[in-house]
Amino acid sequence: MSGGTAAEPLRVVVADDQELVRAGFAMILDAQPDIEVVAEAADGSEAITAVRAHAPDVALLDIRMPGMDGLTATAEVCAGTATRVIILTTFDLDAYVFEALRAGASGFLLKDVRRDDLAHAVRVVAGGESLLSPSVTSRLIAHCTSASAAVPPLPDPRFDSLTSREAETLRLLARGLTNPEIAATMVISEHTVKTHVSSVLAKLGLRDRIQAVIAAYEAGLVVPGRAESSASLRRRNSRGVSP
Q1: According to the model, what pLDDT value does residue 6 have?
Q2: How much is the average pLDDT of 100-114?
Q3: CA dihedral defined by 29, 32, 38, 44, rounded to 10 degrees?
């Protein structure tokens, strides 16, 4: 991967079956000094071919395309390459968004995204972060909570490798807390939080924070119905009560 240095701009593949949308996104991104669109695709199959041929840092995939859709393409790209995926959708309540996140997508954008936000999203995801708005994060947590309440969690031996502090970090992350909020709750530095998060992702074999949230609920690390606000967690922590 390029890492987005001045000499090596971030490489992007744009896939959308609507030519004007695809061309518009490519034009906006190509205008950025640190981003280069290396290929365009009209469907999921073409997108996978382009990703394998160009090894981009990020692939923008429309979730609804003829032939192979963005959901199927996301699963293949995330399973077989190091390219990170941003899903493009018309509505933020698209029924397939959660499935795309489970497949490994690092976030999603509405197609009416502002040009500055589009470029910012590519940089954020290429840098290893996930891209979800607070409202979408809340819906993701609610979705996972509902699913885990309906299906009993299955034992996952991967979680045995987590230290107590890493497990606590993951629980707070799964409840929707940001790094600064986790740091305040655990009374540690943000740098230490980032270290814990990185260790959790490595030990569990996960790509990003989104998959960590899903995994925490599926494994029963976070109990449905017991989510708490960051303020209440900090108050409880100050009284010495463990989560």
Answers
A1: 53
A2: 84
A3: -20
